[in-house]
């Protein structure tokens, strides 16, 4: 563990001091190395997320450069290995710059790795990650796992809320107890906001296709609207 932390700090120092651009080949190697270290450190890697997520997200969000070229223009760059061409007929060709697409794919895989290894520790970045990966970024099995996690947190939220409600009616209830309960309220509100962010991102990327999945957890959100729980 200690060696992994030391290596991680060295990699971060190299990335920060070197001012590496996102399309630098070294950035790709760093992103891959960070994911491997994440698997070693597990939850301890959470401390590095604010430093690594910037380059990873920017690489994951890269959009390919495309162009519509005539045959003469294609001849000028057809030897460039960074470009691929599709002949559309009538002297027209669709060109796409494929350089960087492997980096984008790797960065997307790293986001999945962080989410899998860090679980709730990755919650703060989940919405942006889902939006970056786009529609159909989650397999049916992955979607099932997300719904199971949401259900787990919602059930635990209601259990904690019920316990706090009972505690507020106990004989030993006082200002000190209320202060502790209020802190728990704030923690639960934060967790609920992250769950809401995830649901929002899933609707934003999958639109109506997410409705059948949302139906499986909608009862928890309906329960939140119950006036008796306020």
UniProtKB/TrEMBL annotation:
The keyword Protein transport applies. One of its GO terms (cellular component) is cytoplasm. It holds the Pfam family Importin_rep_6. Its main location: cytoplasm. It is found in: Cytoplasm. InterPro entries: ARM-like, ARM-type_fold, Importin_beta, Importin_rep_6. The keyword Protein biosynthesis does not apply. Keywords: Cytoplasm, Protein transport, Repeat, Transport. Gene3D superfamilies: Leucine-rich Repeat Variant. One of its GO terms (biological process) is protein import into nucleus. This is Uncharacterized protein. It comes from Megaselia scalaris.
């Amino acid at each position: 563990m200690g060696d992994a932390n030391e290596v991680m700090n060295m990699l971060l120092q190299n990335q920060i001091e070197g001012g590496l651009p996102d399309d630098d080949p070294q950035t790709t190697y760093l992103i891959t190395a960070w994911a491997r270290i994440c698997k070693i450190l597990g939850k301890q890697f959470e401390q590095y997320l604010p430093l690594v997520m910037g380059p990873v997200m920017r690489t994951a969000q890269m959009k390919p450069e495309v162009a519509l070229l005539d045959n003469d223009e294609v001849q000028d760059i057809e030897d460039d290995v960074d470009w691929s061409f599709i002949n559309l007929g009538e002297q027209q060709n669709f060109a796409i710059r494929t350089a960087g697409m492997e980096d984008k794919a790797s960065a997307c895989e790293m986001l999945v790795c962080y989410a899998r290894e860090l679980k709730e520790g990755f919650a703060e970045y989940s919405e942006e990650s889902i939006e970056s990966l786009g529609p159909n970024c989650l397999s049916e099995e992955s979607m099932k796992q997300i719904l199971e996690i949401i259900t787990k947190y919602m059930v635990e939220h209601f259990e904690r809320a019920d316990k706090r409600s009972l505690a507020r009616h106990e004989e030993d209830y006082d200002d000190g107890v209320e202060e502790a309960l209020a802190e728990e309220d704030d923690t639960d509100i934060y967790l609920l906001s992250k769950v809401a962010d995830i649901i929002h991102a899933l609707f934003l990327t999958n639109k109506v296709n997410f409705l059948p999945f949302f139906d499986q957890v909608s009862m928890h959100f309906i329960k939140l609207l119950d006036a008796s729980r306020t």
